[in-house]
Write a structure and sequence with these properties.
Elements lengths: L2 E14 L2 E14 L3 E5 L6 H8 L7 E10 L2 E2 L8 H6 L4 E4 L3 H4 L6 H13 L3 H14 L5 H4 L9 H13 L5 E5 L7 H18 L2 E6 L2 H4 L5 E6 L2 E7 H6 L4 H8 L40 H5 L6 E4 L2 E3 L2 H8 L6
Amino acid sequence: MSLLLEVKNLTTRFNTENGVVKAVDGVSYYIKEQEIIGMVGESGCGKSVTQLSVMQLISTPGEIVGGEVILEGRDLLKFEDNGPEMRSIRGAKIAMIFQEPMTSLNPVLTINQQLMEMLQLHLNMGRKAARERAIELLGIVGIPSAKNRIDDYPHQFSGGMRQRVMIAMALSCNPKILIADEPTTALDVTTQAQLLEIMRDVVKRFQTSLVIVTHNLGVVARYVQRIYIMYAGRIVEAGTTKDIFSNPCHPYTIGLLRSIPRLDEEEGSKLIPIEGLPPNLVNMPPTCAFLPRCNRKVEACFKQVWPPLVPVGSGHYVACYLCNKEKTGEPTAK
């Protein structure tokens, strides 16, 4: 699989009355063709802002202050956020399933109108062809009697069905990359599983790539090939799904895994939460941001700046002095 999207040192800030919020702090990652990756971390760690920055959907007081987003050889950050080049990318090349299906659809427009708008705008379809394609898309994402429901309003659909409509809208222009931002929020576990199965089938059928943004490692375990763990605006661990689940290195990754219920645990065993709270992104500590919550800290952690991502295996990267020392025999930062 060839490289489709490459993000290099992406940096996004929010200028607030209390100071500058470092929401995304030098994030780098890549996506291959027809690949599914996961971006995982607690709320407020920068997952969604990273994806919004890729699509230049950051509004005031936010600002993308550095980095590159290379798609098919072009740096998207060199385009004006509302210019014709960027508008041609959104929806047609990169599409997003937004976090709240209950509020992401326009309540005063029918599903048909909202789907047809995308098709007419990006693919120059006529009304009849756009309507037929909209019905086909609703059928693909599993909405029964799509022909009869195409003219319904969002409030006539359940939460799970609205999320299916959002998936259909994102797929309407056959994008190269599909970003699913917390696609299973506020849905029951059965509906969650159905939607994730649909999105996996979509990747195969439309030959697209998929980014699943979530706080739950359990959600991505079955569906993604690679996982990026984010904390306080940075990636702290990256690797294949097998690496992350069978050989987690960063204490934060280990904490996330311990907080997930497991079927192989003994009856009556308790989940182990991650103590403390995420750092204030306005006043970031000079050392590792996870240090106050870490139960594996070593002397180097108190003296050094935030550790860089370094390889600890084939395709496995970790930003932790302890992990680096265990894997290489010596600290990576002097």
